[in-house]
Please model this.
Amino acid sequence: MSFTPIFPGSINAAGRPATLGVMGGGQLGRMFVHAAQRLGYFTAVLDPDKASPAGRVSHHHIATDYGFKPGLRQLSLLCDAITTEFENVPAGSLLALAANRPMAPGAAAVAIAQNRIEEKAHFTASAGVAGVTCAPYAVIETAEQLEAVAAELLPGILKTARLGYDGKGQVRVKDAAELAAAWARLKQVPCVLEKLLPLKAECSVIVARGWDGAITGFAPQFNVHVDGILAVTAAYEGNLPPALARRARTATESIANHIGYVGVLCVEFFVVDDGTADGALVVNEMAPRPHNSGHYTLDACDVSQFDLQVHTMAGLPLPQPRQHSPAIMLNLLGDVWLDAAGQPRAPDWQAVLALPGAHLHLYGKLEARPGRKMGHLTLTGADTAAVKAVARQAAALLSLPGLDALE
Ligand code: ADP
Ligand code: MG
Model:
């Protein structure tokens, strides 16, 4: 598709400075705003929360619900192009915005990512070219489908088709009785049952695809989840077997190309223990936006995932990012601000910030709650051994889990 670039610092037809907008004002929106502003764009955020992390740092903050038409109209009027920082924006809102302004990613791509059933159908049609499959699964929307579940899918994980994140909306089930009880507890909403797979590892790939179909991206990241939430991302040479990493990247590009995706896309994979040295690659889910596992790119690459988000939506060139330092990202959840008894405590920033190659990012959230994403810490170093050593020190200072999985 041909697209007239929206250059930073330019004045648009309405006589206003070139402005980029984002649906959602969380930390991803905040880091998008930072990247857009650094280039010289004005920014607008739509998020009902008056204290949202991105709203606080944007030129414009429209504090209305995601489906409120006057708010959407105002965003359209202010912006030359619009993106999203989370997948659960109402589809009708994305369509309304797309009718007036370039949207990247488009409403159809976001709709696929909103629904695990559609997502799996899309993966089956697109990732197969790289020999990558989904976990064996069954769709459960009716009592008949529940009855008909094949025994090979158990033990499994029942996941709601919509609105799951960070392990929420998921129940692990051992047998048919537990499955029926779990579906009842999930109020019989549409679900998928996935076979519980023996994971060797988890990884993700972030690519950016432009209006003209050009594609660029980062090397696959190795991810460690604790209690269903990303805890650690390792991004350095040798983090994954090279052949497997290449296949993950190929599959991700195919997933993006198949739907003419425009924007930054993250695809999550499982590395399943199948008895081979590398393991088998299974595609799990996609995020139509920058991703927590790509936060290291802010400090370890010359172009970050947020820079690429800005470039794609504005129709700017997509340079190949260069990673200049090995990196480990440690997620900082609210638990870091709470002691064992749940009482508030102050993390030892004095010691953490004295570590070489420590890059602290806090999202401006004032209230720490267990499991709430408050920030992240990226450690960079001259080589893998150095970055691992400094990450271990940081994790010890902040009592952070998950690093053992890198050994
Ligand atoms: P979310 O939307 O919450 O990120 P995911 O489907 O990515 O949901 O699941 C969260 C985590 O649960 C995964 O990162 C993985 O650690 C684990 N998990 C999910 N599905 C499976 C599976 N089929 N087999 C084994 N572990 C799984
Ligand atoms: Mg996930």
